[in-house]
Write a structure and sequence with these properties.
By secondary structure, this protein is mostly helical. It is built from 4 helices and no strands.
Length: 187
Amino acid sequence: MSVPTNNPQLSGYPGVLNPQGASAYQGATPYQGSAQQGAAPYPGGAPQSYPGGVPQSYPGSAPQPYGGAQTQASTKKIPTAFILGIAVWVAIFLIIGVTALMIWSSADESASERSGIAVIPMFGFLVVVPPLVLFGLIAGGSANKRLMTRKQLIMNRIGIGLSVAPFVAFFLLYAVIMIATMVERGH
């Protein structure tokens, strides 16, 4: 065991001093080359070979969690599930709007010509909305929640809710219509 001294010691890294009493790095010497045979050394000249693996932090720095540090860019992103949840509703309103415009512009046509307009929202809804909902649910469910801020977690959950909401709203509307029909018939 070494006795602590008040003299700063070199750690093996240029320009970096160990804290008081700490001994210099006793492992492989820095800059000795690549740890894997045939691999090119790091162009920045960083140490490549350490006994027992790569250290998680360098002397004088804060320890890094496993997997690296959270980047600043990841804290400012809007979750994909939120964007896809909004896209679902934009698609629904566009389909409804285009259908309403087509009905309004064909007001002077015969009923048989207008009946073809009813097919557009059905196919538009089936082709556009379910894939957006599916992608939104997958993106929201598989998001790495450990790297998200609280705000991003809330936005992710809102995105999942926005993705599922059209189907819930359709089911509730259908249930209300069926109940109203049964009450009207007297069953």
